[in-house]
Amino acid sequence: MVGRTHFVAQHRSALPGVEAMTLLTDHVFPRHSHEQFGIGVITAGAQRSWSGVGWVESATGDVITVNPGEMHDGAPIGAARGWRMLYLDVALVTSQLANEIDHRPEIACPTMRDPVLGRLFARLFCGATAATAEPLALEEHLLRMLAYLVRQHGSHPQRAALSPPAVRRARQRLDDAPELSVTLAELAALTGVSRFQLLRGFVREVGITPHAYNLQRRVRLARQLLAAGQLPVDAALASGFADQSHMTRAFRRQFGVTPGRYQAAVA
């Protein structure tokens, strides 16, 4: 039996509002989204991803990005691939770019080959994860990378077409209370359409099923609770999982790291 490759490091970050990860893995990540902006660089191998612009491929040296709420996945092309990643809170990015742009920041492309951006990212990543960090230098690295990113690869966000009302209502219910159990029949009754109509419309508009979306929202809630210091067993129950092991499996599948290692890095 061929052994799996899965090495993940959730680093302590010297920058508030910034999370840093290093990965070398053949793990196939399911479709999911993040609440933050993400930017990283492929350090080894290659991967194929489904994104808002369709299927894209990234190879060693490419910069990869994701906007908040943007659905995506990731699978290796061939052997394991490696990358370094920074996730930046929306409030941090918005405040840093307040005098640079007059609209909500948005990255146009999920993958790009840009050596200049790669070097700016490397300086910020190394500074944010260093044992000792100079705040002024970190602030400069962050601002330079973000300013370059939006100038060279940003876009004016298009006004998104409104989802069908049934999908909007179902999604709002799952966003408001992901920890509470719900059935497809209950969602259909809430939205006034049949179960099949809701399922088909939800997948078309969101990219995943209501169940997969609910699981993702529970994982994100658990992540917030862990970052706030709750014990994993308490976070699991508070976010709607049957037990801690159920949360751990879902957490690792989506983020590639266990809840315990995540909590130790962000505590």
Write a structural description.
- The strands form two sheets. The chain has a six-stranded antiparallel β-sheet with strand order 1-2-9-4-7-10. Strands 3-8-5-6 form a four-stranded antiparallel β-sheet.
- The longest helix is centred in the middle third of the chain and has 19 residues, at 135-153.
- The chain contains ten helices and ten strands.
- The mean pLDDT is 92.
- The protein is globular.
- It has helices at residues 90-96, 115-129, 135-153, 165-176, 184-191, 195-206, 210-227, 232-238, 244-255, 259-266, and strands spanning 6-11, 18-25, 29-32, 37-44, 46-51, 54-59, 63-66, 72-76, 81-88, 111-112.
- The chain has two domains: 6-153, Sandwich (Jelly Rolls); 165-266, Arc Repressor Mutant, subunit A (Orthogonal Bundle), CATH 1.10.10.
- With 267 residues, it is of the alpha+beta class.
Task: Please name the defining characteristics of this protein.
267 residues; alpha+beta; Arc Repressor Mutant, subunit A; 4-stranded antiparallel β-sheet; 10 helices; 10 strands; 44% helix
Secondary-structure blueprint of this entry?
Layout: E1 6-11, E2 18-25, E3 29-32, E4 37-44, E5 46-51, E6 54-59, E7 63-66, E8 72-76, E9 81-88, H1 90-96, E10 111-112, H2 115-129, H3 135-153, H4 165-176, H5 184-191, H6 195-206, H7 210-227, H8 232-238, H9 244-255, H10 259-266
Antiparallel strand pairs: 1-2, 2-9, 3-8, 4-7, 4-9, 5-6, 5-8, 7-10
Helix pairs in contact: 2-3, 4-5, 4-6, 4-7, 5-6, 7-8, 7-9, 8-9
